[in-house]
Specification:
Glyco_hydro_1, EC 3.2.1.86, GH, 474 residues, 15 helices, eight-stranded parallel beta barrel, 6-phospho-beta-glucosidase activity, TIM Barrel
């Protein structure tokens, strides 16, 4: 193995809505994730079919307690420090800072909480890598403004981001605007708080909301660069190479189009303008994207400093309707790839695809990459003595880190790797605790039962050694 670059940011990644809990503590408002119960209703809502702006009686909402990072962050950060973390990617809950999203003044208790978390990280020599919006729009902005379909959210987001930059300018150098911004097209309520009315043109609403998020991202980049001299502000996408099922040119073209669903956002954030294929898509689908006069210049002059991305799996597509019946894995609806193994949740396991994806992104944008999510969701069962021998996770991560090393050898500039999630937390897609990613086990089940006690898995010491040797020993 080659050595990773000096100063490489090894660490892990969590999200406020999947870890913090304390969903109404100290003045926090409700967010969209706080309306996602477990079970069948969860998926109906995720696609934009919301039935109530309040949690329903009789339903279990996993985000309300999550793993209680809000009260246990010192304990958790101490464990991350023991592993040798150089960075922790985390997000700020918008509704902790502005409970309703449109408040005249920020919530001081929320601001102080993140001050305390950042101080604890810095005390242990851990760099905070902060996502401004990670799938949690304040519910008031959904109910009274229609969320990101409304241009007013651009202003609310700019105020929110500027508040964060001013408050934490001496503590946080690495920021990202929106988590997996391309998820807006696949899970519109999760990605943008969108709720659809019967019969409305959902495609029109999605792409108008996308434009508003892109303008808001550019304004955040502008504010961050003005307020924090040495700041690095990135975008973030849910990445994964799409393979054509065959060498039929129709399949190859379809794979290119699927990838463009993701690249569309990053093309704008990184290059500063809408690509030609997006303009044609708008024309072909009769989409009228409302823009203000200054939008073009804002996008052009405020591009991101780096590309953050998650990688869990590659995807495969075909134009053959019979082959398309063989669907597999996650929200991108990939066809089963006969050359790849799958996780317990049907996600393809493709370490080589990680290297391909990294090369593809770097070739396209020529900007530093930051791997901010990568990991294996699996059922971890403690032995009678309490040990958790998650060799399957170690094997998954070992192969992916090795391919990341190869990508760096290929000439790809990668500044860090924060695996998802270093401690067990609530699954974003299913709301489960049973689907575990961590090096640290949290005693809690899908129904919310458990002590919340933390314990180390076998992968804890494995990752510690990876960091100690800067990736030389896998």
């Amino acid at each position: 193995m080659m050595a990773f670059p000096k100063g490489f940011l090894w660490g892990g990644a969590i999200a406020a809505n999947q870890a913090e809990g304390a969903h109404l503590a100290d003045g926090k408002g409700l967010t969209t994730v706080d309306l996602l119960p477990t079970g069948k209703k969860r998926f109906d809502i995720m696609f934009g079919n919301l039935h109530s702006y309040e949690p329903l009686e009789g339903e279990f909402y996993p985000s309300h307690e999550a793993i209680d990072f809000y009260h246990r962050y010192k304990e958790d950060i101490a464990l991350f420090a023991e592993m040798g973390f150089k960075a922790l990617r985390l997000s700020i809950s918008w509704a902790r800072i502005f409970p309703n999203g449109d408040d005249a003044e920020p919530n001081e208790a929320g601001l102080q909480f993140y001050d305390d978390v950042f101080d604890e990280l810095l005390k242990h020599g851990i760099e905070p890598v902060v996502t401004i919006a990670h799938f949690d729009v304040p519910v008031n902005l959904v109910k009274n403004y229609g969320s990101w379909r409304n241009r007013k959210l651009v202003t609310f987001f700019e105020i929110y981001a500027t508040t964060l930059f001013k408050r934490y300018k001496d503590k946080v150098r690495y920021w990202m605007t929106f988590n997996e911004i391309n998820m807006l097209l696949h899970l519109p309520f999760v990605g943008a708080g969108l709720v659809f009315e019967e019969g409305e043109n959902q495609k029109q609403v999605k792409y108008q909301a996308a434009h508003h998020q892109l303008v808001a991202s550019a304004l955040a980049v502008k504010a961050g660069h003005e307020i924090i001299p040495d700041v690095k502000i990135g975008c973030m996408l849910a990445a994964g190479q799409t393979y054509p099922y065959s060498c039929d040119p129709e399949d190859v073209f379809e794979a290119m189009e699927k990838d463009r669903d993701s690249f569309f956002f990053i093309d704008v954030q990184s290059r500063g303008q809408y690509p030609g294929y997006a303009k044609r898509f708008f024309k072909d689908n009769n989409l009228k994207i409302e823009m203000e006069e200054q939008d073009e210049a804002l996008l052009k002059n405020n591009t991101v400093d780096y590309i953050g991305f998650s990688y869990y799996a590659s995807r495969t597509t075909s134009t053959d309707p019979e082959i398309n019946k063989m669907t597999s894995g996650n929200v991108f609806g990939s066809i089963e790839n006969p050359y790849l193994e799958k996780s317990e949740w049907g996600w393809t396991i493709d370490p080589k695809g990680f290297r391909i994806t990294a090369n593809q992104l770097y070739d396209r944008y020529q900007k530093p990459l930051f791997v901010v999510e990568n990991g294996l969701g699996a059922v971890d069962i403690p032995a009678e003595d309490g040990e958790i021998n998650d060799n399957y996770r170690i094997e998954y991560l070992r192969k992916h880190v090795a391919e990341m090393s190869e990508a760096i050898e290929d000439g790809v500039e990668i500044i860090g790797y924060t695996s998802w999630g270093p401690i067990d937390l609530v699954s974003a897609s299913t709301g489960e605790m049973r689907k575990r990613y961590g090096y640290i086990y949290v005693d809690k089940d899908n129904e919310g039962n458990g002590t919340l006690n933390r314990s180390k898995k076998k992968s804890f010491n494995w990752y510690k050694e990876v960091i100690e040797t800067n990736g030389e020993k896998l």
